Amino acid sequence: MSDADAQDILSVATTWRAAGEQVAIATVTETWGSSPRPAGSQLAVTVSGKIAGSVSGGCIEGAVAEAAMKTIASGVPQLLDFGITNERAWEVGLACGGKLKVFVEKLA
């Protein structure tokens, strides 16, 4: 993810926040193996259901959005850890396994 892409997600989130939305930002902090998005990729989520950016795709993206809602409600940041072994990867339709860590925080 380029710095410009990250700035775009932060700009969108800042605009939503200025309009009165409650917003959480999720940032990929670490990857290993197969990961569709690199470290630094971001996702912005609002309580009203707006989403901008991407941290992974598929079921991980949904889990991150759900965690973002909890972080908005509680104000407590979270470090999420997702992973799948090479052996399990074939079972869920992936070529190989990988790991991904995502930090979720409420935008003040």
Question: How would you characterize the overall build of this protein?
Answer:
This protein has 108 residues and is an alpha+beta fold. The protein has one domain. It is 36% helix and 33% strand. It is built from 3 helices and 5 strands. A 5-stranded antiparallel sheet has the order 3-2-1-5-4, sandwiched between helices. It is elongated, with a radius of gyration of 14 Å. It starts with a helix and ends with a strand. The mean pLDDT is 86.
State the gist of this model.
Helices cover 36% and strands 33% of the residues.
Strand composition percent: 25-35%
Spatial order of strands in the largest sheet: 3-2-1-5-4
Distance between the termini: 24 Å
Main sheet summary: 5 strands, antiparallel
In round numbers, the mean pLDDT is: 86
Work out the oligomeric state of the chains in this entry.
single chain
**How many domains, in number, for the residues?**
1
Strand tally: 5
* Separate helix tally: 3
Provide the succession of SSEs.
HEEEHEHE
Topology of this structure?
Elements: H1 3-18, E1 23-33, E2 42-46, E3 51-53, H2 58-74, E4 78-84, H3 86-91, E5 98-107
Antiparallel strand pairs: 1-2, 1-5, 2-3, 4-5
Keywords for this entry:
3 helices; single chain; elongated; 108 residues; five-stranded antiparallel β-sheet; alpha+beta
